[in-house]
Amino acid sequence: MVIKTATFVKSSGKWQDCPEPNIPEYAFIGRSNVGKSSLINAMMNHKDLAKTSQTPGKTQLINHFLVNESWYLTDLPGYGYAKVSKSIRKDFEKLITNYILNRKNLVNLFVLVDSRHKPQTIDMEFIQWCGESGVPFSIVFTKVDKLKPNAAIKNVEDYKTELHKTWEDLPEIYVTSAEKKEGCDEILDFIEKTNDFLTLNNVSFED
User: Fold this and answer.
1) What residues does the EngB-type G domain cover (predicted)?
2) Among residues 38, 72, 102, 152, which one has the fewest Cβ atoms lying within 10 Å of its Cβ?
3) Does residue 135 sit within a domain?
4) pLDDT in tens, 5-36
């Protein structure tokens, strides 16, 4: 997929305030400091489309971007903030959960996982919740350039092994580096093929 246009649409504090759900939507989520904004910017060939920060938890709203005038890319607040109060964390979790479960044009959720770490409980629990809730999702490993190739491969395989304990078939898995733009084309190809399928089958999200 060639990215011709990618423009910010709006930020929403409630899922009901999101743009009209009339075109396909692909959302990105991960725990704080997973490199979500950097990956989005790399995919869109735009260095500051999504705001990056050294402070975990910078994304506190649902941010929508219109890509190629035909689909939405959604930047969701992260889960598992370590440096915010429990009440604020609960608000984030409620916002994320309501969006994921109620947004009828959400075609796929890309769950970002930091490849530098062994399987994290918080990631495993979120992935499990997606499966139990019937949410279509893919797993995206980030920051593979920060590791030696063999170490990155081992961590990804460790995740697969852990997931296979409760999953018979794993979702699509992508291995990425925002720095080197690795994996970006594969994700965009998936989105393009999915959009083509929806068009071919006359799938409409409007009431």
Assistant:
1) 22-197
2) 102
3) yes
4) 999 999 998 899 999 999 999 999 998 788 89
